[in-house]
Amino acid sequence: MSEPEPIFGQPILATERAGNLIAHEIRRAIVEGRVEPGDVLREEQLARELGTSRTPVREALIELRNEGLVEATATRRAVVRAYDASELHDIYALRAVLEGHAARLAAERATDATIRRLEASLDRFRELSTHDGDALNALVAENLVFHGVIADAVDVPHLKRMIDQVMVIPRRYRAYAAYVPEHRLTVADHHAEITDAIQRRNGDAAAALMEHHVRWTGEVAVAAQER
Which part of the chain is the HTH gntR-type domain (predicted)? Predict the structure, then answer.
């Protein structure tokens, strides 16, 4: 039997945080599509590629299972979890509520510096939207910057952690769905409307616009999943 293709390019140094670092690397591989839903994550292979023992790998897989990115099969193997359209819809609905609340709080608490960061992110997103398909990864990254600025402005660590967790799963599916050329300007327009509402200190509008934006993104991702 041939050896599986390597997933990672360099080892993880043995530290007290090795499990967290390994979880981060596996999470990124899942989000970026280097491992697909249903793929088996073999402890031996991961430990060999990352230059660690199996113990921190096992800890990392438990962390990712708690996040919903990995699940255990009947034979106790760890596999990348697959989500169907109904499950994705529910995840986006939850994310819409959490991020809508964050946008409402941001309208109350955002500083002038926060507004400038949102405007700068919007400008970068619009500029990237004019590029060809090779801008996909940059658009996804810039979208995370925009949403991250809002979460940071709220300064509620528990809320930010919940948003981060509920965003991980959709990222695996929306990275290629909401940023195709025909949708990019819609995303930019949504970001502009949210930024304007936050700048006007209109919490109700900011919350409603954010919820609409997240639910729309979810509809795009679910439609792509069903095709």
Answer: 16-83
With tokens 């530290």, the residue in question is 15
Q: For the chain, what are the domain ranges?
A: 18-80, 85-226
The two three-digit tokens of residue 126, written as one number: 């619009």
3-33 b/e (C-beta count within 10 Å ≥ 16 → b): eeeebbeeebeeeeebbebbbebbbebbbee
Sheet architecture: strand order including 78-80? 40-41, 78-80, 70-72
Give pTM, 2 decimals: 0.80
Domains 18-80 and 85-226 equal at CATH topology level:
no
Q: What are phi and psi of 172, to 5 degrees?
A: -65, -30
18-80 is classed CATH 1.10.3720.10: no
The three-state secondary structure class of 71 is strand
Q: Give yes or no for a contact between 107 and 197, defined as CB atoms under 8 angstroms apart.
A: yes
For 85-226, the fitting CATH number among 1.10.486.10, 1.10.287.370, 3.30.420.40, 1.20.120.530 is 1.20.120.530
φ, ψ (nearest 5 deg) of residue 73: -85, 180
- Name the one residue in this structure whose structure tokens are 């619009």: 126
